[in-house]
Amino acid sequence: MIRPRRSVLFMPGSNARALEKARSLPADGVIFDLEDSVAPDAKPAARAQIAQAMAQGGFGGRERIIRTNAVASAFWQDDSALVAQARPDAYLVPKVTGPQDIAAIGARLDALGADSSIKLWVMIETPLAVLSIAEIAACAGEKDARLAAFVIGPNDISLDTRIRMKPGRAEMVSLFLNCVIAARSYGIEILDGPYSDFSDAGGFAAECAQARDLGFDGKTLIHPAQIEAANRIFKPTDDELAEARGIIAAFAQPEAAGKGAIRHEGRMVERLHAEMARRTLAMADAIAKLEQDTTRA
Q1: CA 1 to CA 296: how far, in whole Å?
Q2: Keywords of this protein's UniProt record, alphabetized (predicted)?
Q3: Is the pLDDT of residue 157 over 70?
Q4: pLDDT value at 296 more than 70
Q5: What number of other Cβ atoms are within 10 A of residue 282's Cβ?
Q6: Is 125 annotated as a binding residue?
Q7: In angstroms, rounded to a whole number, what is the distance separating the alpha carbons of residues 111 and 89?
Q8: Which end of the chain is more exposed for a tag (fewer CB within 10 A), N or C?
Q9: 156 is in an annotated binding site
Q10: pLDDT tens, 25-82?
Q11: Which of 189, 159, 243, 180 is nearest to 29 (CA)?
Q12: pTM of the model as a whole
């Protein structure tokens, strides 16, 4: 099933007003955060507020994700218990380093009797995770696997590796591409990390466009002001939709039957282009449905 993940907004679990506001924002997904945005002494209250918000519902078609603290932290046991109780669409675990973390997370959720529909997202933000990206992705192919998405953490990677974060992120492109290829090899979605300067609309739009062109499914956000640009940039354009419809129509013609490639509007297109076109149209339909659902929420 295609699910839009153009804009996935972090919301502090300790901020009750933010959790309430999440019900009316046009983001494709909301991450209820228990990690970086929540002080240690505020984490119990944040868990309680997230549990209450999840129980009340009202988020429409938005994807609901809980970001826990890392497996090695003192908060993981209570955070994972909340995940099993609250039954989000997914839970996001930071600071994974390799397949052993995926196994430990799965074992903990199974021991808690967590519903099998709850998917696992992981933050790729450590040097070891980058080095082990193919092995981590391969965990998605195991029986009863929950692993469904990667979220890149460029700022943490920069901190640990000393790779400088510059406009355009040229120094990190090869790293991003390795993660995208690993994700696609095992059917995993992949989201770009947040853009910290939410007052810089131009810089944010440029980074969204770069992420889209590198193959990311969407972007994680830290401020509601970033939603509109992410939704627009990761949405198929009118020209892309027209081209997709034209390619599908061309292959539907009797003279295209049995052909692997045909001439269309002055160029050769293959069956793989028709497959890409069908995905483009399916994504547009999924976005239209989600926008309809969130408007009604």
Answers
A1: 22
A2: Lyase, Magnesium, Metal-binding
A3: yes
A4: no
A5: 14
A6: yes
A7: 18
A8: N
A9: yes
A10: 999 999 999 998 999 999 999 999 999 999 999 999 999 999 999 999 999 999 999 9
A11: 189
A12: 0.94
Q: What is the pLDDT of residue 193?
A: 97
DSSP line for 175-230: HHHHHHHHHHHTT-EEEE---S-TT-HHHHHHHHHHHHHHT-SEEEESSGGGHHHH
Is there a contact between 58 and 297 (Cβ–Cβ < 8 Å)? yes
User: 3-state DSSP call for residue 33?
Assistant: strand
The dihedral built from the CA positions of residue 197, 198, 203 and 204, taken in this order, carries a sign that is positive
The mean per-residue pLDDT over the stretch 196-213 comes to 95
Calpha distance 79→77 (Å, rounded): 6
126 has pLDDT over 70: yes
Q: With bands split at pLDDT 50, 70 and 90, how would you rate the model's confidence at 297? A: low
Residue 11: helix, strand or coil by DSSP?
strand
With 0-12 CB in 10 A as exposed, 13-18 as middle and 19+ as buried, what is 85? middle
Burial code (b: 16+ CB inside 10 Å, e: under 16) for 19-54 equals beebbebbbbbbbbbbbebbeeebbeebbebbbebb
What pLDDT sits at residue 177?
A: 97
Enumerate domains of the chain plus CATH numbers: 7-234 (3.20.20.60), 238-296 (no CATH)
